[in-house]
Design goal:
Elements lengths: L7 H18 L3 H25 L8 E9 L4 E7 L6 H15 L8 H20 L3 H10 L1 H11 L5 H33 L12 H5 L5 H18 L8 H8 L2 H9 L2 H13 L1 H6 L1 H20 L4 H21 L3 H32 L10 H4 L1 H14 L7 H15 L1 H26 L6 H4 L6 H19 L2 H20 L3
Antiparallel strand pairs: 1-2
Helix pairs in contact: 1-2, 1-4, 2-3, 2-4, 3-4, 3-11, 3-16, 4-5, 4-6, 5-7, 6-7, 7-9, 7-10, 9-12, 10-11, 10-15, 11-16, 14-15, 14-20, 15-16, 15-19, 15-20, 16-18, 16-19, 16-22, 16-23, 18-20, 18-22, 19-20
Length: 501
């Protein structure tokens, strides 16, 4: 691991929490929103600084910070980034800024609390990407729950928003129990492996645990526990039902965060596979089955949707299935495509959900029957929707194309059946997006409310232009992404190949 003298990652994590406190105690509402946005922009600049200092030619964890935290249990405050995690920092910071701007005028009560929660969520999310101690990771993982609970329950647009918030929280808590049990087993195994005592010789450090072999029976148990804990958050079928509910009942910018931040899939990449490599090889068929089932099921259910928000939620579920297919392929194309697609979630899926929110704000509905002819009266809104929709099913020239192509090739290389599922999922993705687009955006204007719809405002244009530019940039120059995570992906694969039974 390579570290620096200045605690940059700590600053990146703590700055949003500090901004949330300052925002919460500021009396003037307009000033509070400005302060929140200022802290979010500073956070974005700091994450770019992290990216600038990152050396993609090495696989070691970089910018590391290590301080003893709970000495009795050997829990450490241990931070670091590698090629798998570093790009998530600026993109999640950018998504937070976009969510703030999208809700700038739509939040009418408890404004300071709302923007403080957005900053707190950003801090916890950054901690998830940077934590290298399993207890510290679990702390940040659980800290993402309260912001989402309040953001969905207090500012949701549906009559069942509080039920949706509770459903999301209960699902995440159930997954958290499995994660905590797996973490304890890993730490206890370390103490046993060195013939030490518990709790004196426990270790929760990810770099240390990666070097400690697990017995086969514990490998299977740890793999299944971690997979379940992260699958709930991803979400994978059958643990997906909280996402459509939250997308329909919660505010659009929070639904954008839920669809854009795929922390569960990141957890599978970062922890599940490397910590139990023998089980990951042996049970890769489980990942394949879950991935393919999620991919096809999500696509088929999306085909039947008449509401744009619910369609996008099931489309997000389907795309998670495609990422799992890429991971299950256990080859370079599949892994790099999966990481690329996870980054695309923060740009494509979240932007589509924000556009759905803009439509709902104007018309009070996102049902297809209420939207006919929107393209003729709001061409700028329709343009951005078309661009993000095309990117979502991988049209060449957008960032969705290299990611989807890599995953399909990886799946075909791994197993013909897995490749067939990936191809079927890609076809379904195009089918449900184009079908809904035809019904909702084209044709004559039937409802008078549609004829009075205002096109995108300047603020909305700006916040959609940023992800649109990045989608095109990464689509034409995918090596910008692939070069950063190439060495880390090779090391990830080599670890699993070493432990092939």
């Amino acid at each position: 691991m390579s570290g620096v003298n200045f605690p940059l990652l700590s600053l990146v994590i703590l700055l949003p929490f500090l901004g949330g406190i300052v925002t919460g105690i500021t009396r003037d509402l307009d000033l509070a929103k400005t302060i929140a946005l200022t802290f979010a922009i500073l956070e974005l600049f700091l994450t770019f600084l992290v990216l600038q200092l990152f050396d993609s030619s090495t696989n070691s964890f970089q910018l590391t910070e290590k301080i003893s935290w709970i000495s009795l249990l050997n829990v450490e405050y241990l931070l670091g980034v590698d090629g798998i995690s570093v790009l998530f920092l600026p993109l999640s910071a950018l998504l937070t800024i976009i969510a703030m701007l999208a809700s700038w005028n739509s939040v009418n009560h408890s404004v300071r609390f709302h923007f403080a929660l957005l900053l707190a969520l950003q801090g916890a999310t950054t901690g998830v990407f940077c934590a290298l101690d399993m207890v510290l990771f679990f702390l940040f993982w659980e800290l993402t729950l309260p912001p989402f609970f309040f953001l969905i329950g207090l500012w949701g647009i549906g009559s069942q928003r509080r039920g949706a918030a509770m459903k999301y929280t209960l699902f995440m808590l159930a997954g958290g129990v499995a994660l905590l049990l797996a973490i304890i087993i890993l730490s206890a195994n370390h103490a046993i492996h060195i013939n030490g005592d518990i709790p004196q010789d426990l270790s929760f450090s990810l770099p240390v645990l990666l070097e400690v072999p697990l017995p086969d029976d514990l490998q299977t148990l740890v793999f299944l526990l971690l997979l379940f804990g992260f699958a709930v958050k991803a979400p994978l079928v059958p643990f997906h039902t909280w996402l459509p509910t939250a997308a329909m009942e919660g505010p659009a910018h929070i639904a954008a965060l839920l669809t854009g931040l795929k922390l569960g899939v990141y957890g599978i990449l970062r922890f599940t596979m490397p910590l139990a490599p023998v089980a990951a090889n042996e049970f890769s068929w489980i990942l394949s089955v879950f991935g393919a089932a999620t991919l096809i099921y999500g696509g088929l259910i999306a085909m039947r949707q008449t509401n744009l928000r619910r369609l996008l939620a099931y489309a997000s579920v389907s795309h998670v299935g495609m990422v799992m297919v890429g991971i299950a392929s256990l080859n370079m194309q599949g892994i790099q495509g999966a990481i690329f697609q996870l980054l695309n979630f923060t740009l494509i899926a979240s932007s589509l959900m924000l556009i759905a929110g803009f439509i709902h704000h104007r018309l009070g509905s996102t049902e297809a029957i209420h939207l006919g002819g929107v393209a003729s009266v709001a061409p700028r809104l329709a343009f951005f929707y078309f661009l993000f929709a095309l990117a979502s099913f991988g049209v060449p020239g957008t960032s969705g194309f290299p990611a989807e192509l890599l995953m399909i090739i990886g799946a075909l290389t791994s197993h013909a059946g897995l490749g067939a599922a990936a191809l079927a999922g890609a076809i379904l993705g195009a089918a449900y997006m184009l079908s809904f687009t035809r019904r909702a955006f084209f044709g004559p204007v039937v409802h008078q409310t549609v004829s009075k719809v205002h096109d995108l405002q300047t603020r909305e244009l700006v916040l959609l232009s940023i992800p649109a530019f990045l989608i095109l940039a990464f689509g034409f120059f995918p090596d910008i992404i692939l070069n950063i995570n190439q060495i880390a992906s090779e090391a990830w694969l080599s670890r699993l190949s070493i432990y092939v039974p």
